[in-house]
Design brief:
- The structure is a single chain.
- The protein has 13 helices and seven strands.
- By secondary structure, the chain is an alpha/beta fold.
- Strands 1-7-6-5-2-3-4 form a seven-stranded mixed sheet.
- α4 packs antiparallel against α5 and α8 packs across α9.
Length: about 280
């Protein structure tokens, strides 16, 4: 369990204890509160000490039992800030990469509009099979996870069918350094750059490239996805963050807009891609 996750759970526990002790119906002991709720006393203790994650129903029952039902929205917001949104790669990849890709297929399939920022590798929605294969092989070696390369590649390629459905829109921004990153053999990268050249002008894709010499009004940060303004995902080495609160989603959308202000599109984007490809041809 991540340190940040545990710290957030302990903070929530301290808030629960505070509500119990300062209850307007009279300061309650842990045993008294457990009796009111019909819980074992150990559950009250675990919740207050951050050793158990409460449910929405637990929080609602707690606030009503201590005479503070109006505090429930605050507690629920705290819970939603960390509950199951720190998705460690160790747990996600326990059964391999293919199941993770299938989960992503379902999430993307439900979405109509994607706003994505990538600054490390070509986005999976536009990857060639060989490029994806190299990324999965290197990830599996690094993470020492189950080796299901072909299943993972097939699932990622299946996701790209989304691009050919009416009413879908991928708004993708990539930093030019992505085009130069040698995460695969040169011939594979050449084919990948050709693929990017080909998607410029697709009805469902708006591809923007932030050139190496473009002025940046915000540090490049980690790559992230915004799905229909309802979910943001951010990838880090140890975990994937899933963020659903409106304020955070709005923050990432502002960041995307800032990066978009430095990007080039259309023929200008094709020229940037061609520049990287010419270097590979040499």
């Amino acid at each position: 369990m991540s340190t940040d996750y545990q710290r957030a759970r302990e903070e929530l526990g301290r808030r629960l204890r505070e509500l119990r002790v300062d209850s307007p119906v009279g300061g309650l002991t842990g045993t008294e509160l457990a009796q009111r709720l019909g819980w074992p006393q150990s559950k009250v203790s675990k919740l207050e000490n951050g050793r158990q994650t409460p449910t929405d129903d637990d929080l609602r029952a707690w606030t009503e039992a201590v005479g503070r039902p109006a505090v429930f929205p605050e507690l629920r917001a705290r819970l939603k800030g960390f509950e199951s949104h720190i998705r460690s790669w160790r747990r996600q990849l326990a059964a391999g990469h293919a199941p993770v890709q299938e989960t992503w297929n379902a999430i993307v399939g439900e979405s109509r509009t994607l706003h994505v920022w990538d600054n490390s590798v070509v986005n999976g929605m536009l990857q060639t099979a060989d490029y994806a294969r190299n990324l999965f092989e290197r990830s599996m070696e690094f993470r020492r996870s189950a080796r299901d390369v072909e299943g993972a590649v097939q699932a990622r390629m299946k996701r790209q069918e989304w691009l050919y459905r009416r009413g879908k829109r991928l708004n993708l921004l990539m930093h030019e350094s992505v085009l130069w990153a040698r995460v695969c053999p040169p011939d594979v990268l050449v084919a990948q750059l050709d693929r990017l050249q080909g998607v410029v002008g697709m009805n469902t894709v708006d591809l923007g490239i932030v050139p190496l010499d473009a002025e940046l009004r915000l540090s490049r940060a980690n790559g992230f996805w915004i799905l229909d303004d309802r979910l943001v995902t951010v990838e880090d080495l140890h975990a994937e963050l899933w963020l659903e609160d409106a304020e955070t989603i709005a923050l990432y959308r502002r960041a995307w807009d800032v990066f978009a202000g430095s990007a080039v599109h259309g023929a200008d984007a094709q020229r940037v891609i061609a520049r990287a490809r010419r270097e590979l041809d040499r």
